[in-house]
Amino acid sequence: MNNIKINSYNLPLIRDIGYIHDSNGIFRHPDRKMEKIHVFIFVVEGSIHVFEDETEFRINEGSYLFLRKNIYHWGGDLYKPGTKWYYIHFYDSPQSESMIEDIEYKYYPQSSLINEDTYSTKLSLPKHGTVTNANYTESKLKNLVALYDNPHPLRPLQLSLQTYQFFIELYSNHIEDQQESKNHYIVNQMIKIMRNSEHKLTGEEVATTLGMNYAYLSTIFKKQTGRSVNVYQNELLIEKAIEMFKKNEGNVSEVSDILGFSNPFYFSRVFKRITGVAPTTYINENYRYQ
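The line above is the sequence of AraC family transcriptional regulator; the predicted structure tokens follow.
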């Protein structure tokens, strides 16, 4: 489908943003192959007919389309009279082009800990879709056009940042629309059970609560989240440990016991594996409060 992927830590680099109105329907989408530039189109009124690499798209009112760089695309029918649309032309960042790994961002409820590898992932932008609130989307794009026309010295950076936020909203809405499946529901139920538990649950406890086979549950959990059930529960425990350290509610040994770890040495290994630093280092480097 020629989806565009952006890195979770890089901004799209804007070339130009604009608004077009073909009142008489006498033009069509240009025939072109843009070597370095991706294209985003959102139709406010009317309809645009586009082909990309032999795939046909009709972008109607309230719908959008991403066209990938270096792939030939061309117009089909003339624009419907009165068609109005916004467009964004943007480059990949240099880091995006040089990055070798292609790990998809995992969209699921996470602990408060942000792991470094989160920023080594990519987001696959939805190829084509329809927004639920067209007026809201149009207002966001109007603001981007106004910013593009503003001569402020920081305009390029502000445009890239706000466009990234706009794309993230489209991505988030698209993913949530897809999460009506049975597997997503099951994973979200597992997460809710684990987050509400006062202790680390065994596989049998998780399976009994949901009335399902644990081997099946653990398989779909890893597939959907990118983490095993055990790793996810460890992250939740370390999240609690950090909160206890901040509130001076115990030293390493005491917190390890309270959270049910077999011994402080194992607790320290898990803590460092998740946060990147030993618990004693974390205590010395971070704020504490009552």
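Note on the example: The beta strands are 5-7, 13-22, 38-45, 47-52, 55-60, 63-67, 73-75, 83-91, 122-124, 128-130. The chain has two domains: 5-177, 182-285.
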